Amino acid sequence: MPTAKRLEGKVAIVTGGGSGIGAAVARMFGAEGAKVAVADYDDDAAQTIAREVWNAGGEAFPVSVDVSDSARVQKMVSATLETYGRIDILVNGAGTLVFGTVLDTGEQEWNRVISVNLTGTFLCCRAVLPYMVEGGGGSIVNFSSSTGAHDAAKNTAAYVASKGGVALLTKAMAVDHAAQNVRVNAICPGPTDTPMLRQSMSVEQLKQFAASFPMGRLGQPEEIARCVLFLASDEASFVTGAMVAADGGQTAEV
């Protein structure tokens, strides 16, 4: 007999769904039976991934969003409700990265990183939560990072600040909404082979970076997506407020 799909009948929004880890999550959710709103700032990328989900036998539609804009976030939520009638899962995968210390990070750069990574997470959660509560519960998976969830790295002040904020926002929401059957967790990926990382480092820098961690390699988007799938599914029914590291041992090493 065929194995039951882990997200059968669920409706999910995946921000940042047009590339990298978000795209891997959208594909995996579709394969596991979820109806997926593939949300991204890049309309063409969202359309491409939604089409891939359909071609693989799943169900998805693309939606344009800038997670730092509350009006566009609400339009994303409204479009999902109009298309699928409910929202069971939210994955806050949209993110951006800027390198720099406090001294050489411009105010505009700082504001952009915080507005996408932290404020964007807040806005998406705020827009979705009433419908999850009304529907009897749901699962939110935020993206923190191995760098920022509980430690820091050189030359990433804005990024670390934003991801540290996501970690504690996750815990706050988990406590606030546990009684309403809304679980809120965060995935904390280590260095992962995504377009965002490849655009920020040379090939040689990436090799050296990967070799510096216990497993000696970058993570793959699909490996992170499997952890997101667990947190989003009913298999994690007693898990809330957790920071789940998927980092090849990065944060285990002193």
Terminal residue distance = 47 Å
Number-wise, the strands total: 7
Radius of gyration over all CA atoms, rounded: 17 Å
Helicity level = 40-55%
How many H/I helices?
Answer: 8
Order of helices and strands: EHEHEHEHEHEHHHE
The CATH class name reads: Alpha Beta
The SS-based structural class is alpha/beta
Query: In CATH terms, what is the architecture?
Result: 3-Layer(aba) Sandwich
Overall pLDDT level: 93
Question: Strand order within the widest sheet?
Answer: 3-2-1-4-5-6-7
Major sheet details:
7 strands, parallel
Number of domains: 1
CATH superfamily: NAD(P)-binding Rossmann-like Domain
Taken from the alpha-carbon principal axes, the silhouette is: globular
Poorly predicted regions are none
Q: Looking at CATH, which topology would you report? A: Rossmann fold
Q: How much strand content do the residues show?
A: 15-25%
In terms of topology, how is this protein built?
Blueprint: E1 11-15, H1 20-31, E2 35-40, H2 43-55, E3 59-64, H3 70-84, E4 89-92, H4 107-134, E5 138-143, H5 157-177, E6 182-189, H6 195-200, H7 203-211, H8 221-232, E7 243-246
Parallel strand pairs: 1-2, 1-4, 2-3, 4-5, 5-6, 6-7
Tell me about this structure.
By secondary structure, the chain is of the alpha/beta class. It has one domain: Rossmann fold, CATH 3.40.50. It has eight helices and seven strands. It has helices at residues 20-31, 43-55, 70-84, 107-134, 157-177, 195-200, 203-211, 221-232, and strands at residues 11-15, 35-40, 59-64, 89-92, 138-143, 182-189, 243-246. It has a seven-stranded parallel beta sheet with strand order 3-2-1-4-5-6-7, sandwiched between helices.
